Amino acid sequence: MPFRLPELLRCLRRSTAGLRCHICNMAGLLSSDKVVTPSTTRIGWIGTGVMGRSMAGHLLSAGYSLTVFNRTSSKAQALLDRGAKLAGSPVDVARASDVVFLIVGYPSDVRRVALDPSKGVLSGLAPGSVLVDMTTSDPALAAEIADAALAVSCAAVDAPVSGGDRGARTGTLSIFAGGDKSVVQKLEPLFGCMGTVTYMGRPGQGQRTKLGNQIAIASTMVGLVEGMVYAHKAGLDVERWMDAISTGAAGSKSLDLYGKRILKRDMEAGFYVHHFVKDLGICLKECQSMGLALPGLALAHQLYVSLMAHGEGELGTQALILSIERLNNTRLEGEPKPDTHSA
Fold first, then answer.
1. How far apart are CA 198 and CA 185, in angstroms?
2. What are φ and ψ of residue 314, in 5° steps?
3. pTM for this predicted structure
4. Nearest to 98 by CA among 173, 161, 39
5. Mean pLDDT to the nearest integer, 262-284
């Protein structure tokens, strides 16, 4: 008996889906019996800035071959000196790699690097390869990239990180992964070179985890610098004050990472103000779509935007102290002036 048209279409869709799964399961890194090792897995890395340079360096130290691309090639020189190869474009990195990591600046950069039809990573990856985006970016874009990767028989993982430049240097980053769980598990030897990975769920959930992380950090940073300014005006030794509170409930990673940097007026970026403004802007956009009011997030965003207005976007996030100092016409350096209004 001949097939009716609807039945034929359903059969064709099942066959196509089955063929795609077969390709994914049998080709390249996604093969179930393929193990990630330095001798079997070629790594690509796009974005060798403050964070990416150290993160990629750990993979080199673990023995993995590395092909890198950065718009400013001089920023990759330290990796090239250690044996990495320089590619001319993201698609060239993809053609030489089984797994491509990227950590760039903005969602627009992620879109261009991953999805550009002629020069993007997905236009050059072989079936069974994996794209890992470690940029803090838009959750909806992460889901879009995952769909685009699936369409070319590859996989994509969104895996933003927390821990700053110190965590990147020491290989102790917290990594939040969204995507296919089995792919994330397969990549654990690579993530383990950079820190500790936690699987968070479907594509985009890694990004949402990082956004929640940034919301918590933003309010913590406001509290830290306000506490420091208060301690200064109250006549306390601010460094001694920080040591005293660090072992109590006020202790935090932000205090550990940035407290003494602030006292030394060390505003060098471990994480740029302009990137943090970008992150908090994505958070606010997500909150608006969810009908969620987070006033602490909005305040922190505005304080960091004020740093941008003063041309301080290239400083580190600890530069928030400058905004609070300006509001109070004070400066932490030197002895605090006595409070003439005290009883």
1. 10
2. -90, 0
3. 0.86
4. 39
5. 95
Mean pLDDT, residues 167-191 taken together: 97
Element (H, E) at 252: none
User: CA-to-CA distance for 284 and 278, rounded, in angstroms?
Assistant: 10
CA 186/CA 183 separation, integer angstroms: 5
For the chain, how big is the Rg over CA atoms in Å? 23
Angle between helices 107-115 and 139-151 (to 10 degrees): 0
User: What does the H/E/C string look like for 190-249?
Assistant: HHHHHEEEEEEECCCHHHHHHHHHHHHHHHHHHHHHHHHHHHHHCCCCHHHHHHHHHCCC
Grouping H, G, I as helix, E, B as strand and the rest as coil, residue 48 is coil
- So what's the pLDDT on residue 15? 47
Instruction: Write the burial class of residue 157 (CB in 10 Å: 0-12 exposed, 13-18 middle, 19+ buried).
Output: buried
Tens digits of residue pLDDT in 88-114: 999 999 999 999 999 999 999 999 999
DSSP state of 291: T
Among 34, 85, 210, 233, the one annotated catalytic: 210
**210 assigned to active site:** yes
For residue 340, give the H/E element and its range.
none
**What's the CA angle centered on 151, arms 199 and 110, to 5 degrees?**
60
Residue 175: phi and psi, rounded to 5, are: -120, 125
Who contacts 263 (Cβ-Cβ below 8 Å, separation ≥6)? 228, 238, 239, 242, 332
